[in-house]
Amino acid sequence: MRFHVVLRYVAFALLLNSFFMGVATTISFFNNDSAAMPLLYSTLITALFGIFPLIYVPKSGNISNKEGLLVVVISWLSSCLVGSLPYLLWGGVFSFTNAWFESVSGFTTTGSTILVNIEALPDSLLFWRAATHWLGGVGIIIFVLSVLPFMGIAELVLFRSEVSSLAQESFRQRARNAVRILAGVYLGLTILEVIALKLCGMNLFDSIIHSFATIATGGFSNKNSSIAHYNSPVVEIVIMIFMILSGLHFGLLFTAVTGNIKNIFNSTITRFYIISMLVGIIITSLNLYGTNYDSWIDSLRFSSFQLLSLGTSTGFATADSSVWPAFTQLILIFFTFQCACSGSTSGGIKADRIVVLFKSFIRHLKQLMHPNAVIPIRIEGRAVDDKIASRAVSFVIFYIAIVFISTLLLSLLGIDSYSAFTGSAATMGNVGPGFGSVGSVGNYSQIPQLGKWIFSADMLLGRLEIYALFIALTPAQWKKSVSY
Predict the structure, then answer these.
(1) Which of 16, 62, 23, 55 is CA-nearest to residue 39?
(2) CA distance 348 to 310
(3) Can you give the residue ranges of every domain in the chain?
(4) 465 class by beta-carbon count within 10 Å (0-12 exposed, 13-18 middle, 19+ buried)
């Protein structure tokens, strides 16, 4: 394992962070607010750590798969670390644990927060907070690859290390084209939402903050009451539309824009994703009507937003879903686990794996009845490789096991079991709000310090899809490395 080569590629991620810190610093000096020096110092420190490896480490266009995986993991961890600097230096409620939690929550697009009074932060720090969402949404490495010249084999290795195998299967594009598609769709959706929200009456700053959070499916708002602050059905409709779009595979969105819109409607995964959301909205609306809301319109309005927000792992809020009926909460918890499609910015298990899991179960039943039959799992008319199907099923098992273990550990810390379970599911799925004390109008400020570290680990495991973090942090994997 050539750690010096790994550090050289990590340096690009740090420089990308320093650029956005620089933008936040400019905003701070323009507004003459209290975050100017913390942001300036953070920018300089991050830039220096990014520049040194580029000066002293020679270029290498050929890296191994293990080195690529380590680049991705260290880039995420180092981004979270330097991302906590502006919070830590600014002070206030930001102890090291709180600053780390907020930074991890931002980069992993979870949207959980320790802040009780979000609006007390200066605009520049709120911009940096939103920028961590936007950097983490499509993936830090994807951003780096999109702005750097072609890097040969290294680019292919890094792309494969950053993007899940399910998403790669659906792209059917060369790495360079796939990177450009991801970055292009991501940027395009962000610009469109900024314009749409501005037309709805939001000011430009709020439009940018909420667009960063929506397209990254993150959920950081600059308002204490999130989207409920605006009390605007039009704003909610715009955000719901972009939450749905951000939960779709970006490759399908690209083909739709370039003239093949039928691909979206022909996709088994997309149909399952949309239909499951619609069914969930209808069920929750019916359950809320007459219990929490006297108007059918209000019931549909609030249930739609909350379900789409959790079902795409965005985490915005327009209502306190913790006081909704238990049946409705269970429906929302299911979507907290499932979330949207691979190849999107959404977290969770992903609709793709749910479909593969269901088809694997059906195949197993058929094989019990016909032991000698060869029954492939097909999606979009193509047979899914058995290794990918097996990996998807294993992922679901490990995912649920991690949520269960986290719940046990958090319960030992004195957190009530409902908050511990839903908080674990929400952070593991990069969703943000759970239920109970960590519900949609609550926060994670009251969680013990050790509990915040457990939740932070869940966020990283969820964002890096479990395997990457475990493999990269296993010392045995560092000893030998075969080039791609």
Answers:
(1) 23
(2) 10
(3) 3-250
(4) buried
Asked if residue 24 lies in contact with residue 66, where contact means CB atoms within 8 angstroms, the answer is: no
Residues 322 and 309: beta-carbon distance below 8 Å:
no
Return the closest-CA partner of residue 110 out of 473, 386, 351, 460: 460
What crossing angle do the helices spanning 386-412 and 449-463 adopt, rounded to 10°? Answer: 170
Distance of alpha carbon 338 from alpha carbon 332, whole angstroms: 10
β-sheet bridge partners, residue 302 = none
What's at 440, amino acid-wise? S
pLDDT in tens, 354-376: 999 998 989 888 888 888 888 88
- Token output for 178: 């796939």
Distance (Å, rounded) from C-alpha 403 to C-alpha 408?
Answer: 9
Contacts for 135 with CB less than 8 Å, ≥ 6 apart: 16, 17, 20, 79, 107, 143
List the pLDDT tens digit at each of the 484 positions of the chain.
677 778 888 898 899 999 999 999 999 999 999 999 999 999 999 999 999 888 887 776 677 777 777 888 888 999 999 999 999 999 999 999 999 999 999 999 999 999 999 999 999 999 999 999 999 888 766 756 655 554 555 555 555 555 555 555 555 555 557 777 788 889 999 999 999 999 999 999 999 999 999 999 999 999 999 999 999 999 999 999 999 999 998 888 888 877 777 777 788 889 999 999 999 999 999 999 999 999 999 999 999 999 999 999 999 999 999 899 999 999 999 999 999 988 888 989 999 899 999 989 898 888 888 888 888 888 777 887 888 888 888 999 999 999 999 999 999 999 999 999 999 999 999 999 999 999 888 899 999 999 999 999 999 999 888 777 777 666 665 555 433 3
Axis-axis angle for helices 123-138, 65-83 (nearest 10):
170
